[in-house]
Design goal:
- The chain is built from 17 helices and 20 strands.
- It has 519 residues and is of the alpha/beta class.
Length: 519
């Protein structure tokens, strides 16, 4: 029997393409509602950039290890809720500090978990801006309280909007006010000091890869406040445990995940998505299809993947409009290092950000991010050792057209330069490395299946907050998108929001949603 014939009889309610966190939240939520769900993952493990891999006794996180969404109160603790909804739970370790900044002109700032302590520390550095500092960050709390007062489900469902407005009308009205606003506008309303405004730029850049003028206020309200409310909490065993537990919850509720299953095409009949085709030729049918690929990998056209899931001639006009508004963010040069424990000074924070020159913040390999999660969870590294994961933005253009030898040489040279920069935070690190893995944009493209190895969209021009960001439905009936190319954007908690929203919209379309809102 041929692969196509073997798949002819196999039909599902929903097929999800990709097992990133957004796709897994969508799939597990739908399975819990009773849908027949199949997740197709091209790689060997789940999670995408939210996964982990193991080498020589180390457990390395693929992407960032600064995790939001594991709080215990309110509605913004989406990772906690997504796991609980399918009978799962992550043991987490609280980080007392979100991040320590090492910035030009000797500006060093640690962001404490305690809000008042952080504000006091910032005011001590900028005493003449005391009032503006409090006004700006208190405004972020206003946004957060609006978000935290309501279940975060699909904004595409009128019945949900009506119910949540009835439950929390003031929060809804407050949130609507901030949808078209960017952080820079709010910061300049309260703050005048150029150095402090640059710090706000970096506060945004550290998670959105954008300065304040391009960062939506909704996202900043979530991040700048949740780090003090729910806090930064690291999942014991590594970030990949989140994906593993979502898979366990999916399977517990009858869902299926298949690895080494690369989808090459979304099947369309009469302008409706009816299934997918795999690289081996097998075709699988479903009532609904969800793409957890980026929109550049989902839809064809100028600037998109050469092998999109939907051909350019079938791509809706709305996707072309979106591509004029957003562009792929840079990928990263990543170093996963195993180091002797003695090189990490006692009392070191887990997360650091390093920038030597303000003019280089958005430049190729300008800003350096550092995570040392084994300070929280020693089981991630062999005894007497720590993990140092360092990454810096890097574009695919700087890595293309290289011969194999030139590519290897550039990897090592760029890695050496990055290690030399880390000496300012971890003196002696170069001589303390016992294991080294180097990843480039080409590595991220290969293993994550993302155009140019990008970690998500950033505005191609100044946009009004989150208003232009698309939701989960697309211009093709039966085809949905989920992940960082959808509202509200990048970050594990943000793509969990996208997953909740997508599952709720699909649940409404399939007649699976309960009438009542979640508590």
């Amino acid at each position: 029997m041929s692969p196509v014939e073997a798949g002819d009889h196999e039909s599902w309610d929903v097929i999800v393409i990709g097992s990133g966190l957004g796709g897994l939240v969508t799939a597990s939520q739908l399975a819990a509602k009773g849908a027949r769900v199949l997740v197709l993952e091209r790689y060997l493990i789940p999670g995408g950039s939210g996964g982990s891999f193991r080498r020589q006794g180390y457990t390395f996180d693929v992407g960032a290890s600064m995790i939001f969404g594991f709080g215990s109160q309110g509605h913004t603790n989406l990772l906690t809720r997504a796991l609980a909804d399918v009978g799962e739970h992550c043991v987490t370790i609280a980080d007392p500090t979100q991040l320590e900044y090492h910035l030009p002109d000797g500006l060093n700032v640690a962001v404490d978990r305690d809000y008042q302590s952080f504000i006091a520390r910032l005011i001590a550095l900028f005493p003449h801006e005391a009032q503006g500092i409090r006004a700006f960050y208190d405004t972020c709390w206003q946004v957060f309280r609006c978000l935290d007062a309501m279940p975060l489900l699909s904004l595409e469902d009128p019945s949900y909007l009506a119910k949540v407005f009835f439950r929390a009308p003031l929060a809804c009205l407050g949130l609507a006010r901030w949808l078209p606003v960017n952080v820079g506008d709010v910061a300049r309303r309260h703050i005048k000091d150029p150095a402090l405004l640059k710090f706000i730029d970096m506060e945004c850049f550290c998670w959105s890869v954008m300065p304040a003028d391009l960062t939506p206020m909704i996202n900043a309200g979530m991040v700048f406040s949740d780090r003090h409310a729910g806090g930064i909490n690291y999942p014991k065993g590594g970030v990949g445990v989140i994906a593993e537990k979502l898979v366990a919850g999916l399977q517990r509720h009858g869902g299926v995940i298949r690895y080494r299953s690369r989808v090459t095409k979304v099947l369309l009949e009469r302008d409706r998505a009816v299934g997918v085709r795999l690289a081996n030729g097998q075709e699988l049918r479903a009532q609904k299809v969800v793409s957890n690929a980026t929109r550049w990998d989902t839809f064809g056209g100028e600037g998109c993947s050469p092998t999109p899931l939907v051909a350019a001639e079938d791509t809706p006009a709305a996707e072309r409009t979106w591509r004029r508004r957003y562009k792929p963010s840079p990928s990263f040069l990543s170093l996963h290092l195993g180091v002797r424990a003695d090189v990490v000074p006692a009392g070191s924070h887990v997360h650091h950000l390093l920038l030597e020159d303000w003019a280089s913040m958005e430049a190729e390999q300008g800003t350096v991010f550092v995570s040392m999660p084994s300070l929280l969870d020693p089981s991630l590294a062999p005894e007497g050792h720590h993990i140092v994961h360092s990454f810096t933005p890097s574009t695919m253009a700087t890595w293309q057209g290289l011969s194999p030898q030139a590519y290897r040489s550039k990897k090592q040279a760029d890695a050496n330069r990055l290690i030399a920069r880390l000496e300012s935070i971890l003196p002696g690190i170069g001589a303390a490395i016992t294991h080294q893995e180097v990843g480039t944009p080409r590595s991220h493209r290969r293993f994550l299946g993302r155009l140019a190895g990008s970690y998500g969209p950033i505005p191609a021009l100044r946009l009004p907050g989150l208003l232009p960001m698309p939701f989960n439905r697309t211009g093709i009936a039966g085809l949905y998108c989920v992940g960082d190319s959808c509202f509200p954007g990048q970050g594990l908690n943000a793509v969990a929001f996208s997953g909740y929203a997508c599952a709720h919209r699909l649940g409404a379309d399939l007649g699976l949603n309960p009438w009542a809102l979640p508590d």
